[in-house]
What does this fold into?
Amino acid sequence: LFPSYWLWFMSSGLYLDFGAQPPSRLGLDYFIWLILGLLTLYVYLCLKSALMERHTYSKLTWPIYLAIGSTAFVYGGPALVELGLVMLSGAMSDSSIKALLGVITAMFFGGMVIQGVVDILISITLLWDSQDLPDALRIFAIVTLISGVFGVTVIAGIATLITVPISMLVLAFYFLRHPQAIEVV
It folds into this structure.
């Protein structure tokens, strides 16, 4: 869903008109954006839960909370401002509308940098303890580190279209693999 959304968004030319005029209604792209945010939150919560249940690993708790906060900011912030624009654009001046469109842009790019920093923090934490964790988490940490570096640089952020799905696939393999059960009699 992530790369499909961004490829559709860029190919439809919407990014060229961003800032030109306010949205007049909430379209499919708005709701897909919210779904992407909710799915990202769900993945972070599942990762936190799986690490605790399978490995009693809690060192990633605070970085995951930071990731949840940054995800809420990146997805929820622009969505709320866009909702406000749709609802109130008729009563706002052109300069106010352009300022709010600028806020959406700043929130997006600022959020991308924040998310990149959080991804780097998560990666370093996982790599630091990689000898105690499965290989899938080590691979996830490496790909997430690369993705975080791309996000922080903003210019190379387009490369996250490749790295984010790869990291999610690796994480899916980790989630789908059954935990090892050891019985002590």
